[in-house]
Amino acid sequence: MSNLLLGIIALSLGVAVAIPMLLLFESSKRRVKETGDSFQRWVTQAEKNIPSQFKVSKHWQLFGLAVFLLGCWLFNSPLPAFFGALLIVLIPNQLLHRHQQKHRDMVLEQLSSAVRIFAAEFAVTPQIERGLVAVGRRIPDPVGKIFRRTHSQLTYGANSDEVFAKMIREFNSPYGHMFVQLLRTAQKQGRVVAPLFHDLVSRITVAQELSQYNKGELSGERHIGLLLTIAPLPLYFTLQYYLPEAREFFQTGAGQTIVTLSFLSAIGWFFVDRMVSEA
């Protein structure tokens, strides 16, 4: 009887202890899930708030994570590792931006001639199709291709609003947008819009002159700034190779601060360069 009683007491105590533990486990599991969901929502919202020109693909994000882990081992600190990984991830984005900027400059240069040709043709024969054909024949790609495609689609009866919307996306330029808006107006009002095309030519010419002036004035400074901002990274590895004791210094607080500030200056240069190029 006593053994039975002791068994019952032990079972009761076990149940009494197990139930709170199970409840605590479930509560912890729920909190972990809620924290994970909250973090995921925060990440999603943060990605939405990042300007589109600074967004990177999932592959580059994974590569940046790998660089961060490597940096933690290399610098023995997460702070320089984080900014180093951010810098590495931003480099291809900056190169892509340079390529897109060159494309926009080419479009702006060709668009000036294209609008001038269109305005001259439209003043004689107020038909946008004839103007599109004239530009498509005389202007090289990429702008000439846009005009030829637009004329072909309008000729075959495509919806003009959809055709013009696609034209705006292909121009990817505020002046291209203005030109397409004038096309829409000209389609409805005819020859009365002709002087506005000449006014647009003047605006584009002024924008071209300003862009060329800025390039001429800032080109050298931008290249020097790029060299100065990326120099610390190869310098760091050079010192590591020729002066092994330098590794000990860069793992101190002062060394990590120097490395972090070097990475920050390079990242800051990317932002400044982008603002200058888009001004």
Concise synopsis of the structure shown:
The protein is mainly α and about 280 residues long. It has three domains: about 1-35; about 60-100 and about 215-279, no CATH class; about 110-210. It is built from eleven helices and no strands.
Give me the count of strands. 0
Which stretches are low in confidence, meaning pLDDT under 50 for 5 or more residues running?
1-7, 13-18
Helix content: over 70%
Q: Please report the distance between the alpha carbons of the first and last residues.
A: 92 Å
Tally of structural domains = 3
What's the order of the H and E elements? HHHHHHHHHHH
What's the shape? elongated
Question: What structural class should be given to the helix and strand makeup?
Answer: mainly alpha
- Main sheet makeup: none
> How many DSSP H or I helices?
11
Q: β content, as a range?
A: under 5%
Name the average pLDDT.
77
CA radius of gyration is 31 Å
Comma- or semicolon-separated keywords:
279 residues, mainly alpha, 3 domains, 11 helices, 87% helix, 0% strand, disordered N terminus
Protein model, in words:
- The protein folds into three domains: 1-37; 58-100 and 213-278, no CATH class; 108-210.
- Helix 6 (160-171) runs antiparallel to helix 7 (174-189).
- It is 87% helix and 0% strand.
- By secondary structure, it is an all-alpha fold.
- Mean pLDDT is 77; it is low at 1-7 and 13-18.
- The protein contains eleven helices and no strands.
